[in-house]
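Need fresh eyes. Consider my entry:
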Amino acid sequence: MTNLDDLPGHLIRRLQQIAVSAFMTETGAAGFDLTPVQFAVLATLEDNPGIDQATLAGLIAYDRVTIGGVIARLEGRGLIERKVSASDRRARTLKLTEEGHAFLASARPSVFETQNVILKELDDAEKDVFMVLLRKLTDANNELSRAPLRRAVDEP
């Protein structure tokens, strides 16, 4: 018989469930209708205004097809805008609206508090080690993902 608690993959899946639940609880309690992926989109567009949808998907390690629905919902809420790319008429560039910037600034404290909730059982030294190991594993296994992280941003 297999003890699931001895399988890193099982524990990582459980921690992901816990992280999403904590995120939804903290942001919801603060009055925000926001998912972790939506936050990643908004934060990435704040840092990279004018990127296209494919680049955005790579920067947040999200499926290029599925990201369209996330973008459509955020656009429908007036938080982002899409425009036809000046360099490629088939592509759409993305950027935060003024409302999007304000929403992100308001939501950020509850997102940061989520991180404290998730890591609350670790002392500062353990948090540092956990983050080093987490980054090491995600970086080393990036290409195993169906949506690998792409750090480089091509100029739109």
Summary: The beta strands are 51-52, 80-84, 92-96. The mean pLDDT is 94.
